């Protein structure tokens, strides 16, 4: 999950660069990411010598569809909000995941996970409250905020479906279904807004796909070996990665409350890891 969080943080930074620096539309970034992910996933499936289509196709299709729609919303939020704030809103999904897993997977939420979620939510509230306006004091667009929250909920639904699928499907097949459904959805919605990327922009788009693959494989492997609510609680660490990247690369200097909130989030993650010790 830590490797997954770092991969997704680097992916988000590349998405922001592609959109703000090279003016690549969000749907085109989604399509590019999906193409790279499909190629890597299919190569891994061939290496394992297994069927690419899996056993439980209705749930595999559902996972791909929900994941694709959530990704579009998340990418829109990343390109219209500062990286740290967009990631903070997106990473409410461990809370949604724990609740959905309780209802649909009948997983028991352990005390360490409850402590992790509570500390992390406190950290999120500390970070959001004073920072939820632009530098000139103008509030952020509610479209952006709503997109981030809906994307977060969609991600949680996708993770619960992934957990259900890990009982019958190989992780590479689960990952593969996501891009093959995301490609037609994103290209269909993109329409005539396609922008021909230059060499540098193409490189950034490829990195989006590569870092995504790191994040997806790490996440899927983690869900193979732990309950959904336990595994995804570690995802809060991506907030710290995103704050650091936003600070170093995008000059989005975190204020004291952002750092204080990050301490709560990291403390929650450590409690989740070290509780039994």
Helix/strand order, N-terminal first:
HHHHHHHHHHHH
The beta-strand count equals 0
Mean of pLDDT:
85
Number of helical stretches of at least 4 residues: 12
Structural class, from helix and strand content?
A: mainly alpha
Outline: globular
Total individual domains? 1
Low-confidence stretches: none
Helix content: over 70%
Radius of gyration: 18 Å
Rounded to the nearest angstrom, the distance between the terminal CA atoms is: 19 Å
Strand proportion, as a percent range, falls in under 5%
Q: How would you sum up the major sheet?
A: none
Provide structural commentary.
With 277 residues, the protein is mainly alpha-helical. The protein has one domain. It contains twelve helices and no strands. It is globular and about 45 Å long. It starts with a helix and ends with a helix. The mean pLDDT is 85.
Topology:
Layout: H1 2-20, H2 26-48, H3 57-80, H4 83-90, H5 93-105, H6 111-131, H7 142-165, H8 171-190, H9 199-225, H10 228-233, H11 237-248, H12 256-274
Short description:
With 277 residues, the protein is mainly alpha-helical. The chain is 78% helix and 0% strand.
Structural features:
single chain; mainly alpha; globular; 277 residues
